[in-house]
Write a structure and sequence with these properties.
This protein is mainly alpha-helical. It has helices at 2-17, 28-56, 62-110, 114-139. Helix content is 79%, strand content 0%.
């Protein structure tokens, strides 16, 4: 009896579980911000390489190069903040969808609604995937192990 019920529940949730998250199309301002941040990362790497080269050769330009590296780092932080601000509506929508899916799952768990649990869990999984995909698209592959958005 229980197996038949579990199997029926799984079949009912199959269309939901088959869905996969796709990256949200990024608005032009977010795409421009992402390109700027990528350029800033390259500029910071170049500035740091120059500082290291000058330190090895005991060049008189070390102080100026350190200042240039600090400027490049500051510009990177400022542009990354602009990217984050412009991308916030996308991430907020994903986080709201995840919040709603988790709330529904919790309500069905608390109400002992076993028939809805598989579909609820699939909806939570899909919402988590969507958030991850959008974070990856917005970060442009520059995450380096830091996770600012946890779920």
């Amino acid at each position: 009896m229980y197996r038949a019920f579990a199997f029926a529940t799984l079949l009912a949730a199959a269309p939901v579980m088959a869905q996969t998250a796709t990256a949200t199309t990024l608005p032009a301002n977010v795409q421009a911000d992402l390109a700027t941040v990528k350029d800033d990362v390259a500029a910071l790497k170049a500035a740091m390489a120059q500082v290291r080269a000058d330190e090895k050769s005991n060049s008189a330009a070390v102080a100026a190069d350190r200042t240039a590296a600090r400027l490049a780092g500051l510009k990177l932080r400022m542009d990354a903040q602009r990217l984050h601000q412009d991308a916030l509506p996308i991430l907020q929508a994903d986080e709201t969808a995840l919040f709603n899916a988790l709330t529904q799952l919790h309500n069905d768990q608390a109400g002992n609604n076993a028939g809805a649990l598989a579909a609820d869990e699939a909806a939570v999984t899909l919402a988590q995937q969507q958030l991850r995909v959008d974070i990856a698209a917005i970060s442009g592959g520059m995450q380096r192990g830091r996770r600012h958005h946890r779920f």
